[in-house]
Amino acid sequence: MIPITFKKITTAILLFASFSLSAQTISSDRPGVGDGASIVLKNKFQLETGLEFARYRPGELYMFNQNTLPIALLRYGLSDKIELRLLQSYFVTDRPKLQGDHSNNGFSNTSIGAKFRLAENTDRGTQAALLFDLGVPTGSQEVALNKFLASLRHLFCWNFSEQANLTSNIGVYWAEEQAISLTYSFAVGYAINDKWGVFIEPFGEVYQFDDFSIAIDGGLTYLLNPKMQFDVSAGSGINNDFYFIGLGFSWLITK
To answer: What is the structure's pLDDT at 62?
Structure first.
């Protein structure tokens, strides 16, 4: 099976997400695999977009590239405790060693979802939220699964110092006619200064509670201003053969 099957519930379920640094107006769910526990400000939109280039080798003679050009996540603060989410991607997939060169391009399934704030303790620097996503089979037949996919994750963030935090995601995902699978990620973020941040994140899944996979990624963020953030990241499998690199931009849209 292909690793990283939980990337934001699109077709191969492409994932990217984040840690949040304290003292930032914008709190992005990218880069990385997990999502932060923060909610977009009420009545505000936030756009998070980027590019990802990935290579997978599930078998000795089977290798393919899957590039996402782009990934686009739109978040909207419905209230102080609820945000709505819409995710769409465009895939370019190449299989250079599978019966000759072959390429498939097309849109992913559309993912719709909501994040619910469960608790926040400013004295302890902790936040908790629940994130639900539903992948709707609207994508191109060449690259998208013709199935509904759903996920439910518990998100927790702990700012254990003024410069460092820990973000965890624990949850499940499932598709039509498939058993439930477990997904997890644990990210440690560190603010180098008021502009630059770094993170490292082990993540993985237990596919249908049988096939265990683990991987790791890390990257940099740069805060251009309180409303805009750039990022770059890269990751690799530990007990499976794949790697990816990505770069992106997040924008909190205000008047």
So the answer is: 64
Owning domain of residue 160: 45-253
- The answer to the question of residue 26 being in a domain is no
What integer pLDDT is reported at residue 164 of this predicted model?
96
User: For tokens 């499976």, what's the residue?
Assistant: 240
Q: How many domains does the chain have?
A: 1
Tell me what pLDDT residue 84 has: 99
Confirm whether 128 is domain-assigned: yes
Kindly list the averaged pLDDT for each block of 10 residues, start to end, along the chain of length 255.
Answer: 41 34 71 95 96 83 79 96 97 70 84 97 94 95 88 96 95 90 96 96 92 95 96 95 95 89
Residues 6+ apart with CB under 8 A from 199: 18, 19, 31, 32, 187, 188, 189, 190, 218, 219, 221
Instruction: Answer for the pair 52, 33: CB distance below 8 angstroms, yes or no.
Output: no
- For 64, the token pair is 């393919």
Tokens of 212: 């265990």
How far apart, in Å, do the first and last CA atoms of the chain sit?
45
Note whether 234 and 243 are within 8 A (CB).
yes
Find out whether 73 and 50 touch, Cβ atoms under 8 Å.
no
- The secondary element (H helix, E strand) that includes residue 243 is strand 242-253
Evaluate whether 166 touches 188 at the Cβ level (below 8 Å): yes
3-state secondary structure (DSSP) of residue 213:
strand
Do 75 and 83 contact (CB within 8 A), yes or no?
yes
In a domain, 39, yes or no: no
Q: What is the CATH number of the domain that holds 57?
A: 2.40.160.40
